[in-house]
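hiii so um. not sure if this is the right channel but i have a protein structure encoded as tokens and i wanna go backwards to a sequence. like what aa goes where. can anyone help
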């Protein structure tokens, strides 16, 4: 996700799901811009008055753990860093092909 677009995506999500008070952000900790993404998203969350919870994953086992944590924390909505979408799809397709 382009870091400067993150707060805009968060704002749009809040418009679509106005009752979402707790929003999760799933990021790739190995991406060099992740720290900047988190900072900007936290600023955006404060601006619209929502709680932002950060989850990190870059490998299949980390995605499994992160999504388990997402379910347990009962977040209202999820923003996924764009660079992770293809990885998540690849993990899911790979799981189907494996078995």
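sure thing!! here u go:
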């Amino acid at each position: 996700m382009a870091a400067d677009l993150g707060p805009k995506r968060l704002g749009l999500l809040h418009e679509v799901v106005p009752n979402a008070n707790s929003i999760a952000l799933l990021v790739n900790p190995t991406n060099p811009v992740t720290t900047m993404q988190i900072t900007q998203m936290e600023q955006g969350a404060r601006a619209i008055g929502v709680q932002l919870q950060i989850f990190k994953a870059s490998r299949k086992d980390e995605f499994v753990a992160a999504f388990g944590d997402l379910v347990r924390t009962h977040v209202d909505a999820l923003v996924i860093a764009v660079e992770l979408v293809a990885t998540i799809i690849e993990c899911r397709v790979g799981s189907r092909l494996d078995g």
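oh and Residues 31 and 55 are 14 Å apart (CA to CA).
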